[in-house]
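Researcher: I'm preparing a figure for a lab meeting and need a structural model of a single chain. I don't have an experimental structure, so a prediction will have to do for now. The sequence is pasted below. Please return the structure as tokens so I can convert it later.
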Amino acid sequence: MLENGKISLRQFGILVTLFTVGDAILVLPSAVALESKEDAWIATILGTGIGLLVVYLFVAVARLNPRLTLVEYNNKILGTAMGTVLSVLYLGYFFICAAANIREIGDFMTTLSMPETPIQAIHVVFLCIVVVGVRHGLEVIGRVGEAFFPGFIVFFILLALFLLPKIHVENIQPVLAEGIKPSLQGSIVSSTFSTVQLVIFLMIIPYVNQHKHIMRSFMGGALLGSLALFLIILLSILVLGVDATANSMYPSYNLAKKISIGKFLERIEAILSLLWFVTIFFKIILFFYGFLLGLSQLLKLREYNLIALPSAMLLMALTIIISPNTTFYHDVITRYWPFFDLTFNVLFPLLLLGIYGLRKLVNRPQRE
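Model: Understood. Here is the structure written out token by token.
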């Protein structure tokens, strides 16, 4: 087995939560507000419902072969030829998602924190951390997530509490002024930026030490992460207003700038940046881990560490190629990425379930 480590249900749920929050804590409020205006919070609730249905779909697929990864049971269900094609597509998806998230880190740092630093330097530093983490294996990743999680919860709660004096309820009024359609459109964006991308955990479920309660852990982690995103979006609208949220590239970062307690606790946006760095790190490392593990299984390698560094170098190149500038990247993410996500995370799993059911139906008379 390429991965000898195991993680607990608790660690699995924590990784799901951190992954769900991921990059969305910084960029999602703007994307949803563009679609749904004052009703962005309603769109997030609807998006959570959609996301939980997709998580149920993932668990249904995983239960077909709970001891196998996505790459392994693609071949088992579809056959070697078609299974390999679908696996290659998924590996490309994981790789592109990892590159896109690393690009977001570079754009954020060069835009707000270190404008004179070459974006490539930021990518290299972060990729080095990711490679070190991946080479230590899934068990270490799970333990690190468990160690960071209490701090994430504490800082997030403090951030929300500090913003309560700044809210303006009139910012979310009128409710459903343009009907339900904008909220439905925003719900697609909301779910695809967070819970829908949890397909990567189909590469991890075989290494969870208790499969019996995997549904509860998966659903609980996704729900907790979605709740955090709902609060960030709601606070962004209540504090900043719709226009400021929709027109800002990083509205939740601007949200943290509004905090002022007694004129001595101010400008603590570093807390939000820290939260974002933690969550996006786990999103990147899990995408990269899933890619390495899947590629090693596809090529029948003995261990995935051999290809970690070459793959990281390719990932570095893709982070620059993927977009010429920040504006183009955010335009593509908002307009087209949801359809990309839905293809890999809804259409293909449904295809696997459908073919599996059809094969069982066809083979049943032969057994009788």
